[in-house]
Amino acid sequence: MTEPAxxxxxxxxxxxxNHGMPLEMLREPVTPVGLHYLLIHYDVxxxxxxxxxxxxxxxxxxxLALGLDDLRAFAPHEVVxxxxxAGNGRAxxxxxxxxxxxxxxxxxxxxxxxxxxxxxxxxxxxxxxTVELVFTGLDRGVENGEEESFQRSLPLELALEPGVLxxxxxxxxxxxxxxxxxxxxxxPGWYGMTNVKWLSRISAVDxxxxxxxxxxxxxxxxxxDDPGEPLSRILPRALMVPPGIPDFMTRERLLPRGVVxxxxxxxxxxxxxxxxxxxxxxxxxxxxxxxxxxxLGPWAWRRFTYAWDARTAGTHVLSCRARDAAGNxxxxxxxxxxGGYANNAVQHVxxxxx
Length: 354
Hints:
Blueprint: H1 9-17, E1 54-58, E2 64-66, H2 68-72, E3 76-84, E4 107-116, H3 117-124, E5 132-143, E6 146-155, H4 156-159, E7 165-170, E8 173-174, E9 184-186, E10 199-205, H5 212-215, E11 219-220, E12 229-230, E13 237-240, E14 245-246, E15 253-255, E16 258-267, E17 273-279, E18 287-288, E19 290-291, E20 302-310, E21 314-324, E22 347-353
Parallel strand pairs: 1-10, 15-22
Antiparallel strand pairs: 1-2, 3-4, 4-7, 5-6, 5-10, 7-8, 7-9, 11-12, 13-16, 14-15, 16-20, 17-18, 17-21, 19-20, 21-22
């Protein structure tokens, strides 16, 4: 594997503000809040919950201004969902796109609770001719020299799906500031940028939204001038808990000879995961892992295990890959793109058996 070029101070500044989930936390079915991956595009806004309101406007019969108590008055719904950053794996591409330098840890699974978006839209009365809903967060910043709020849109038919939430709780507690307090959008199965934080406005519109985060960023492009294809659902991925103990700097693993249980989690935003395979010889051969019958729901990761007889001393490269019910499978090698998005190439863990 090619070592990426050196990381600059700008990227280190981003890496210091954001964080991934330590892979050993794959042992947990639901990620503790403080260890769930985090990406903050601009700044964490300061929000007064008492005066905050969610505005629902545009092509609606009744414009709404809802406080937290108003949202809690809707029938609550809970979804356990695995969320992954679209840039997860970016730092492993060659040449490496310059941005938040994610390796593999930009993922987490949360127990989200809130009002169904479709229930709120029903109260507002979305007019015929509505094509999309535009979601605006309170976080503001500069992109290409232009000041803007973070905004994303969804097609109306997707917004009406029952799992799409206006979430005000994570893991049984109010959203923490870094995860979008007091309210965020949750779209299960879609990459993290879709789930707008610090939500302040939902606007029904009759033409496709062309804001920066929709029309320029988060698209699969081969050149800067390529309009590309928009990112949407999470591609399948399996990650293992690195076995043994780590070397401090290289993170290579050390463990004694014997039978080792390799465990991890696998997920896909397209369809349920149906198979995970493990390789212990650098992807030369693959064996089927055992998938647990998890009860976390259709949008959460599944646990897998594999018994590895590590009887041979020396260096081994462990890998894992997932396949979903729609036939999508992780590739061994990554496909490059300008933004470094959707790199779901298989994980490789170097293990030294003593």
